[in-house]
Design goal:
globular; about 230 residues; about 35% helix; alpha/beta; 8 helices; single chain
């Protein structure tokens, strides 16, 4: 099992990965669609930003951030705001259901104005009834069903989980997963999906995300557990 909890900042300055989700008014995306798209986008962006082909400064900033707490700030944008922030260095992804932009990490007090003006809190979207999907080839991310989180908060947590899944995969398996768009299945009700108790999943999951407690949940709360492609529970 690979548990994750925020380590101390290497120099006391908080850094974060800024993630922007496109949320138009009509139609608005569904809660699960955002979670799936953000998780895949984070994995794809980090692979891109740390590759040998990445700009040296962008790669250095990403590696510096990965050495400390893997903090993520999820923002929402629509219309002109979405278009303007696309000019900021980062990786845009539309592999999945929702447009997501992942920007190069940096200090939380030095965010590009086009990103910093976008709203952080209050992203809570509805989730229509949806049947289970085939997990084949997908990482499976299970959100704690006993904790209430907004869509934005949950998106940051599944982003952590997808990042840790990617980091734990052998190079060949990681390459194969990324080549198909780093697909994920996000499960909100493990009992309904597989008859699996949450505590049992936490005990055997390869990746466990414990939150730092900065927003919405208490410090140390396990928010998401994850299983790599080919290792889905149930």
């Amino acid at each position: 099992m690979t548990p994750y909890a925020d380590p101390p900042e290497p120099d006391g300055v908080p850094w974060a990965l800024q993630v922007v989700v496109r949320v138009e008014k009509d139609p608005s995306p569904a809660h699960l669609a955002v979670l799936r798209s953000v998780a895949s986008a984070v994995a794809l962006a980090l692979a891109d930003l740390t590759s040998e082909a990445a700009e040296p400064e962008e790669r250095a900033r990403t590696e510096r951030w990965r050495a400390g707490p893997i903090r993520k700030v999820v923002r929402r944008a629509r219309g002109a705001g979405w278009t303007r922030q696309l000019a900021v260095p980062g990786v845009r992804s539309h592999h999945g259901e929702v447009d997501v932009a992942v920007h190069v990490p940096g200090p939380v007090d030095d965010v590009h104005p086009e990103v910093g003006r976008l709203q952080v809190g209050g992203l809570s979207l509805e989730q229509p009834d949806e049947g289970p999907r085939d997990p084949a080839g997908r990482a499976v991310l299970v959100v704690n069903p006993h904790v209430e989180m907004t869509t934005g908060k949950a998106a940051a947590q599944v982003g952590h989980a997808a990042q840790l899944v990617l980091q734990d995969l052998p190079a060949e398996a990681a390459g194969a997963w990324l080549a198909t768009g780093a697909p994920v299945e996000v499960v909100l009700d493990p009992v309904g999906a597989w008859g699996e108790d949450w505590d049992r999943l936490v005990a055997r999951a390869p990746v466990v995300v414990a939150d730092g407690g900065f927003t919405e949940v208490a410090p140390g709360t396990v928010t998401v557990v994850a299983f790599p492609p080919g290792d889905a529970p149930g």
